[in-house]
Specification:
heterotrimer, A mainly alpha, B mainly alpha, C alpha/beta, A: mainly alpha, two-stranded antiparallel ribbon, 10 helices, 2 strands, 70% helix, 3% strand, B: mainly alpha, 11 helices, globular
Chain lengths: 254, 324, 250
């Protein structure tokens, strides 16, 4: 049940990863996590290789370790779940520090931990080196329906504006001594959610008027013309092919 | 419920990905004929609203807080089709921009957080509209019940995916009981807040509530105030009943998957069952404890979810008017 | 004789909820003029502005922009000619970056490639916002936001600029920047505002709207000097302000 974060992950830097065309990065990230996801859990060496690649890329993108670790906490609820599996799962028991736990459960725990950690690190790499406009452009070049990318663009644009309105409403309530502790005291919060929806809707209408006023005819123009070049595609595909090869080898050895 | 990569097996990720992409694609294709260009910015700002609503902490009990999921709320306000599209965008942006939820988990995350609550929730909403009075209070009440049940549907849907795609030897009936039990309580908060929010919109701008388009001004004006306390207590009682009956144990303090995990730490140890963690595991038996009971529960839950989502889809696609 | 930059005749409009916002507006603005549009909240000023490029459709009466009737067939043409700067810059700046936002209008006009880049750069330079190009609107200050919003409209090379409360919510320095900018632009301007000193400084002519129609039309200095007129329309000069002191620009 992770609540949404209001701040995007983008880290402003100038590195080859930041400069890479977004469509190539998207393909690389998706290909990589798919390879990770299908790797058999017993192939510990394969996960070590994946992690080494990600660490190298994090260094290339000039990420600070603290930043990455802080954002990785988003998977914490699932990590807690994973930690309990060995106690719940069935099968052979092994002794760990004098406690009998399920051998299979330990592997399951490792499987979820490893894949979730590698997955979120990949997501952090992608989101941290690609700003939102680029991400959306990359998606539309990968044939994600324009309706979805356009809605996503407006959403990201107005997220901070609406979160700000929400924050001001909460401050106004708190300033008048509102400190609810039980669900049946939630009416003011809920009605403010309704008010926020109306404000959001009306803003949407005004935005549309502003678009019409500048000649909008129903299709968002693609303003940025840059496309991924051959070297960028080569780099992206190299990563995916390498990861796929590791996954295949892991299956071969399993 | 933003599951990370590797939480369910690859086959389930692919299968739910295909279902999600197909459903969203069909909805978009249908919407293209009806979505006026003004609805693109509207949908975007509405998506920002849903995202913000998920940061909306509301009190639950003794100072603990929960937050909205918003799927059913979006469907009642914007219509099932546009609502599902909007929440899908929210889930997608959370994964890509905020690294919240795994990239390979997008299929099941979209299904559980956008498609099931929006379409399923809307179908439940329409069902309750039939028995509720034709008034603003009736619409708000139906919204509350639909929003609450949409959370339970989501939990059941996740449990069913665990049945097919478990990555650990935790039996389906255990996961199902815990997920549905806990989410029945979470659903109470979701229902109360959604009902009151829709009530507030109805009081100020009834024309913005898709689910109340059939009501005229006179029907909307004759509204009786529903006591929040009555609604909340009634909801809690109903949820407790549901939790006890369905899951054999009632959790007292809702916080989703973590709570499920904690409960499992103390219950039902040692089931003898081998788990094959292959890519396409043996669907019928994976993660099943008590097989007869599990399959009966799974079958029933699957039928209910499919019916609800199907009905929501039909309602969305049948609608010849613009989605807002 | 050339057609007026803006000609409004007998314009009436009611919102779907039945509220009659415009009850017969007549207004002429000639090329090269700068006119202030004054009036209390709810007078219909913004509603009127939304008719200049067909965002709202009149129920009665007509609007011509440089001789072109504002009817659906001419919307594309009219929307190029009339630049509408909205009150809330957050409504106007809807793209992820300032550059994309400025490019949005000309791209809709069919510009692309180097031509589009040149047009975008020109508009950004005109409001001294070249360095804001890559920024996200949410990270701009109030004054920067206002200038960026102005650039998005200037990129269309409009003949008539309609500004809705261009100085609302700005600090004095930001307000001064906007005034300087508007003075430097050689475009016909209609400025909707509650900022009466701004009207006096910027616009030789003022129009007061109230109750959905034009209530007064004349020299800004004269209208602002008429205490009874101002009070009748819920307008008031700042405390200690004497309109006779400041001669309006000629």
């Amino acid at each position: 049940m992770g609540a949404g974060h209001a701040h995007a992950l983008y880290v402003h830097e100038h590195t080859p990863l930041h400069r890479m065309a977004p469509e190539a990065k998207l393909v690389a990230a998706f290909g990589f996590v798919v390879a990770v996801a299908v790797t058999p859990r017993e192939a510990v060496w394969a996960f070590a290789l994946y992690a080494a690649v990600l660490v190298a890329l994090l260094r290339l993108g000039r990420f600070r370790a603290r930043f990455v670790v802080a954002r990785m906490l988003a998977v914490l609820p699932f990590v807690l779940f994973a930690f309990l599996i060995p106690f719940v799962a069935g099968g052979d028991k092994v002794d760990v520090l004098g406690v009998a736990v399920s051998r299979d459960g330990l592997w399951s725990m490792w499987n979820i931990l490893a894949k979730a950690t590698l997955g979120i690190t990949t997501s952090i790499l992608l989101a941290g080196t690609t700003d939102v406009p680029d991400l959306l452009r990359g998606m539309s070049r990968l044939r994600v329906p324009a309706t979805l990318t356009a809605i996503a663009g407006f959403m990201v644009r107005y997220l901070a504006v609406i979160a700000d309105e929400l924050r001001r409403m909460r401050v106004a309530m708190t300033a008048r001594g509102y400190d609810p502790r039980w669900l049946w005291q939630a009416r003011p919060i809920a009605t403010s959610a309704g008010a926020l929806f109306i404000r959001s809707y009306e803003r949407g209408e005004r935005v549309h008027q502003a678009m019409l006023a500048r000649g909008f005819t129903g299709a968002m123009p693609d303003v940025d013309q840059r496309r991924a070049g051959r070297p960028e595609w080569a780099a992206a595909l190299a990563l995916v092919v390498a990861a796929a090869a590791v996954a295949a080898a892991a299956w071969g050895l399993a | 419920m933003h599951a990370p990569d590797g939480f369910l097996n690859a086959g389930t990720a692919v299968a739910t990905g295909v279902i999600s992409a197909g459903t969203v694609g069909a909805t978009l294709r249908h919407a293209r004929n009806h979505l006026q260009d003004r609805q693109i910015p509207l949908a975007g700002v509405a998506a920002a609203f849903i995202f913000a609503a998920q940061m909306f902490n509301f009190p639950v009990a003794a100072g603990t807080t929960g937050h909205l999921l918003g799927g059913a709320l979006a469907a009642v306000l914007l219509g099932p089709g546009l609502g599902a599209i909007v929440v899908t965008v929210v889930v997608g942006v959370q994964a890509l921009v905020f690294a919240d939820g795994g990239l390979t988990a997008l299929g099941y995350n979209t299904l559980n957080m956008a498609i099931v609550p929006a379409f399923g929730g809307y179908a439940v909403f329409r069902l309750f509209r039939r028995v509720m009075p034709r008034s603003a209070a009736g619409v708000a009440g139906a919204t509350g019940l639909a929003a609450g049940l949409s959370v339970v549907l989501s939990a059941a849907s996740f449990s069913l995916q665990w049945l097919f795609g478990a990555t650990a030897d935790v039996p389906f009936d255990t996961v199902f009981g815990a997920m549905v039990g806990v989410h029945s309580l979470i659903g109470v908060g979701e229902g109360v807040i959604s009902a009151l929010a829709v009530g507030a919109v109805l009081a100020a701008r009834p024309d913005l509530v898709y689910g109340a388009r059939d009501l005229d001004a006179a029907a909307l004006a004759g509204r009786a105030r529903v006591s929040t306390r009555t609604f909340a207590i009634g909801g809690v009682l109903a949820a407790l009943l549901l939790a006890v009956v369905v899951s054999q144990f009632a959790a007292g303090n809702p916080d989703g998957l973590e709570r499920v995990a904690q409960d499992q730490g103390f219950a039902e140890q040692g089931r003898d069952h081998a788990l094959d963690s292959g890519i396409f595991a043996d669907y019928a038996t994976d993660g099943v404890g008590n097989e007869t009971l599990s399959l009966a529960v799974a079958g029933a839950a699957g039928t209910v979810i499919t019916l609800a989502v199907g009905a929501g889809l039909v309602l969305a696609l049948r609608d010849r008017r613009a989605p807002v | 004789m050339t057609a007026p930059a803006l000609a409004v005749a007998g314009l009436e409009f009611a919102y779907p909820d039945g509220h009659q916002a415009l009850t017969g507006v007549d207004l002429h603005v000639h090329a090269g003029e700068r006119v202030a549009l004054l009036g209390p909240n709810g007078a219909g000023k913004t509603t009127l502005a939304l008719h200049f490029n067909g965002i709202l459709e009149a129920h009665a009466g007509e609007v011509h922009v440089a001789g072109v009737a504002v009817v659906p067939d001419h919307y594309a043409e009219v929307r190029r000619r009339v630049g509408l700067v909205f009150q809330d810059a957050d409504d106007q700046l809807f793209m992820p970056t300032v550059r994309e936002d400025v490019a949005f209008g000309p791209a809709n006009l069919g510009l692309a490639g180097a031509e589009l880049t040149a047009r975008t750069d020109e508009a950004l330079a005109a409001v001294d916002a070249t360095e804001l190009a890559g920024r996200a609107p949410h990270h701009l200050s109030g004054g920067e936001r206002r200038r960026a919003a102005l650039a998005t409209v200037l990129a269309m090379r409009p003949d008539l600029l309609v500004l809705d409360e261009p100085t609302a919510g700005l600090d004095p320095a930001g307000r001064r920047e906007v005034i300087g900018l508007l003075q430097s632009l050689p475009i016909t301007q209609l400025v909707i505002t509650h900022d009466l000193p701004l009207a006096l400084e910027l616009c030789p002519r003022a129009v007061i709207m109230d109750g959905g129609r034009v209530a007064a039309d004349g020299s800004t200095a004269e209208l602002l000097g008429d205490d009874a007129l101002l009070r009748r329309h819920r307008l008031e000069l700042p405390y200690g302000f004497d309109p006779a002191v400041l001669r309006p620009p000629t």
